[in-house]
Design goal:
There is one protein chain. The chain has two domains: about 1-40; about 40-85. It is built from four helices and no strands. Helix 2 packs antiparallel against helix 3. It has helices at about 5-35, 40-55, 60-65, 70-80. By secondary structure, the protein is mainly α. It is about 65% helix and about 0% strand.
Length: about 100
Amino acid sequence: MSRQSLQVTQDSDRLRRARNDVRRPIRLACLAALHSSGGNPCQVRHTFASTRLIDGANPWYVADQLGHADVEMVFRVYGKFIAAGFQRPGAAGKA
């Protein structure tokens, strides 16, 4: 492995850890509130995705935030919450 690629790998690992450190307190607070209400972590993900899409968020952004490889799952599960302005890829040319 070259020195430059090693540096890039180390930088991306450091960035990923820093991002997780920022999210950790929020995640722990959400899980504590959810635990006291008797819910499960999947409900937090579903609520996040639903409310973001209702507010008009880009489905590709929501798919990325949920960790999905593509947007198909978001369209399949949350399609009823997606604004009419967002279309599936390739759907613009179809009649």
